[in-house]
Design a protein that fits this description.
Order of helices and strands of chain A: HHHEEHEHEEEEEEHEEEHEEH
Oligomer: heterodimer
Largest interface: A-B, 16 and 17 residues
Radius of gyration of chain A: 43 Å
Low-confidence stretches of chain A: none
Strand content of chain B: 25-35%
Mean pLDDT of chain B: 84
CATH class of the domain at 185-283 in chain A: Alpha Beta
CATH superfamily of the domain at 185-283 in chain A: Cell division protein FtsQ/DivIB
CATH class of the domain at 118-193 in chain B: Alpha Beta
Helix content of chain B: 25-40%
Number of helices of chain A: 8
Shape of chain B: globular
Number of helices of chain B: 15
Structural class of chain B: alpha+beta
Helix content of chain A: 25-40%
Shape of chain A: elongated
Strand order of the largest sheet of chain B: 3-2-1-6-11
CATH architecture of the domain at 185-283 in chain A: 3-Layer(aba) Sandwich
Largest sheet of chain A: 9 strands, mixed
Low-confidence stretches of chain B: 52-58
Distance between the termini of chain B: 30 Å
CATH topology of the domain at 185-283 in chain A: Rossmann fold
Strand order of the largest sheet of chain A: 8-7-6-9-10-11-12-13-14
CATH architecture of the domain at 118-193 in chain B: 2-Layer Sandwich
């Protein structure tokens, strides 16, 4: 029998080679080897490297350093603060509440928080912050305009048209141009107060102030101890009635202490003591008058 | 019978699984070469858009994505002679084809030419229970065929119902659903040596492949080489291979007879080798380059260096004229064709309406065969080449690949075989119940 050994040049693959080739052609095995294995190697290498805390620290330090170096490039540096639309004192207080050490990187500036802090100031109505090219922190401020002076037990305060506090003042004389309000809760009703005062324009020179009574209604105080008691609801209309009377009959020029408009169906006048006396005398009602 | 039934059924199941996966390999184990083709099934509608034409008789449903051939080793007369050698050759072919296809194949359909195929015509008939023919009736009719005593050590390779007759109507392809009283069936049974099949199975198993079907190469060549009208009207296909020449006769698109002459191209080579005193490889080379069967005056003057490497100048400088070579080849080719003629006569081929004979296979490429063959086989002889299938490399489109291509078609459009029909119900339950009982007894 011929030996079954392979001929000298055998093109046939060995059993092992044949099996390996078939294995290599198996799609799943192939995918595993081509994708899974490199992935595994990379993941395990990275995992091994990161298992040491020193390496993690080194990486994070390096990252922070790079970040810092980018942030501190001169293009991103803010060198000064410009405040527009604010008076000197308010600008001072804004600088006081924003303790920023210039120059500072624009990445370190928290503009929304700064805006909130500026708007917390009573005198500031609105603030717009932006970083202008050239490294300038631009703050556009709109101040609150004081509309009234409010007298409370604690002192005098300036309020704007919405009733928001602007600042305190020591004396009403400093702001004689502003009307005076008094009474608890007056600050909550400043717009109404301003309407009332606008209605009382004809007697503007005589107005001493507007008093909030029991956090309910207004009393317009004029000089010569005259006062106009206004109702809770629709005080402006009530005052308009009074003003019409004033216009027609010079009501307030007369010797009247109180115009009581609290009940709109029954406006009431209270005359001053002397006037009552005079009236009675004129009517001959006073005892003894005839005896004289 | 039941064993074969189940193994063939298992193969059919395997083939279905392979079709589902979409990749199947074709293995043609021949005497002179082993060819492996890798088919990809994409479904019939895959190619329609790009082609713009309908499927070519269903053959466009697959595409060849890998093809490889290797010199066959350890095969004689189409039978495995040295298993390790053959296994290696199969491995070479399969690996090369896989490499070309870049896909792993697990299922293989194999064909071989040897193993002394023998054809039997079987007939069976039953009375129908019902007037309508059902699947069960077909199964019963097939089961009623009286199987001839084909001898021990032989196995059924093909068992194809070729004709159904219902009462007096015959020539039916599919009787199911038709009305009648008596169903008769004609069946073609092909048996081969079981040892040969076992050897082939073992070799394929050693290559880690699953056998999904097995066919006779004469049958496969017939499928690919005979054109449709030849298959319909009746024709014989002679697959002249290396070690054997397979004969298959077709009529009405069914194979009705197969035989095999145990002579082929290798014998011609052997004659040249002996006649000219040259090694077999040189003889093969001389045959393929200068071979022929009809000598002309010109051939006297055409001298062929036959060489040698003995160191003896006289011996190494020998020349031979082409006429001498033809003189050696022709008697052997004539002998083969005469033997084929004898087999055809024995099969009663002359009674067929059409006497068309198609020569294919590697040995059919001998120049001048188309002049010689009609003298022996009759006037209607042509040299056939296999059908073109998509993706087949140019090198594999020639006559030597007739059986490989035929096997592709066989894989794509398998012929219904006996085991594809249902098992008759009167056999089936008794056995399975018995088996179930045995299982219970064994396990409890």
């Amino acid at each position: 029998m011929r030996p079954l050994s392979a001929p000298a040049r055998d093109p046939a693959p060995s059993r092992t080679a044949y099996r390996m080739h078939r294995l290599w052609l198996t799609p799943m095995y192939r995918r595993m080897l081509r994708v899974g294995l490199p992935l595994l190697v990379v993941v395990s290498a990275v995992g091994w490297y990161l298992s040491d805390p020193d390496h993690i620290r080194g990486i994070s330090d390096k990252a922070a350093e790079i970040r810092r170096s980018i942030q501190e490039r001169p293009e991103f540096m803010v060198k000064l603060m410009a405040i527009d639309g604010a008076s000197e004192e308010i600008a001072e207080s804004i600088r006081a509440v924003l303790p920023v050490d210039f120059p500072v990187s624009s990445f370190d500036l928290d503009l929304p928080a700064m805006q909130d802090r500026i708007e917390e100031l009573d005198a500031v109505d609105r603030a717009d912050l932006r970083i202008r090219p050239g490294g300038i922190l631009q703050i556009e401020v709109r101040e609150r305009v004081p509309a009234v002076v409010w007298r409370t037990a604690q002192g005098l305060e300036l309020l704007d048209a919405e009733g928001h506090r602007v600042s305190s003042i020591e004396s009403h004389l400093k702001r004689m141009d502003l009307p005076l309000l008094a009474g608890e809760g007056a600050d909550e009703m400043v717009p109404e107060a301003l309407e009332v005062l606008a209605t009382a324009e004809p007697v503007a020179s005589r107005i001493r102030g507007l008093v909030r009574m029991g956090e309910r209604r207004w009393t317009l105080v004029l000089d010569r101890d005259q006062s106009i008691l206004l109702p809770e609801s629709r005080p402006v209309q009530a005052l308009e009635q009074v003003m019409a009377l004033e216009h027609a009959q010079d009501l307030l020029a007369r010797d009247i202490a109180v115009v009581d408009m609290r009940n709109e169906n029954r406006p009431t006048l209270r005359m001053s003591g002397k006037a009552v006396e005079e009236l009675r005398r004129a009517k001959g009602l006073v005892a003894g008058a005839g005896a004289e | 019978m039941m064993d074969l039934y189940s193994s063939q059924r298992a193969m059919r199941g395997m083939r279905k699984a392979a079709m589902q996966r979409g990749v199947i390999a074709i293995l043609d184990v021949g005497t002179s070469k082993i060819a492996c083709l890798v088919l990809r099934f994409d479904g019939p509608d895959h190619f329609r858009e790009s082609d713009g034409v309908g499927s070519m008789a269903g053959q466009s449903s697959f595409r060849i994505i890998g093809a490889a051939t290797t010199r066959s080793r350890g095969v004689r007369f189409g039978e495995i002679d040295a298993m390790q050698e053959t296994e290696r050759a199969i491995r070479t072919a399969v690996q090369a084809a896989q490499k070309m296809a870049n896909v792993r194949v697990d299922h293989v359909i194999a064909c071989f030419s040897g193993a002394e195929p023998r054809s039997y015509g079987l007939a069976g008939s039953i009375e129908l229970h019902d007037t309508q023919v059902s699947e069960q009736d077909v199964a019963r009719a097939l089961a009623s065929c009286d199987v001839p005593d084909y001898g021990a050590g032989r196995e059924v390779l093909h068992a194809q119902p070729v004709n159904f007759a219902l009462d007096h109507r015959t020539g039916m392809g599919d009787p199911r659903g038709q009305i009648g009283n008596k169903l008769a069936v004609d069946m073609h049974l092909l048996t081969v040596d079981s040892d040969v099949i076992q050897n082939l199975l073992y070799c394929i198993k050693r290559c880690d492949l699953e056998l999904a079907g097995i066919a006779s190469s004469a049958y496969a060549s017939g499928i690919s080489s005979l054109v449709e009208d030849e298959q319909e009207l009746g024709a014989a296909c002679i697959d002249m291979g290396g070690g054997t020449s397979g004969i298959s006769i077709f009529i009405k698109k069914h194979m009705i007879y197969t035989d095999c002459v145990r002579m082929g191209g290798d014998h011609v080579t052997m004659d040249i080798s002996k006649g000219l005193q040259v090694p077999l490889t040189t003889a093969e080379r001389i045959k393929t380059f200068y071979g022929g069967v009809v000598a002309t005056g010109m051939d006297d003057r055409e001298m062929i260096e036959i060489g040698g490497d003995t160191g003896d100048w006289e011996h190494d400088r020998r020349t031979v004229s082409r006429t001498e070579l033809i003189g050696i080849m022709r008697p052997r080719v004539e002998e083969i064709l005469e033997e084929v003629r004898a087999r055809l006569d024995a099969a009663g081929f002359e009674h067929l309406p059409s006497q068309q004979i198609v020569l294919t296979g590697g040995a059919s490429q001998i120049p001048g065969l188309d002049g010689l063959a009609p003298k022996i086989l009759g006037q209607q002889v042509r040299i056939g080449r296999p059908l073109r299938v998509q993706g087949l490399p140019q090198a594999a489109t020639g006559a030597p690949f007739a059986s490989a291509v035929g096997l592709c078609l066989f894989a794509a459009n398998p012929q219904d075989e006996w085991w594809d029909f249902e098992i008759p119900s009167e056999r089936y339950p008794a056995r399975s119940l018995k088996r179930a009982m045995k299982w219970f007894k064994d396990n409890w």
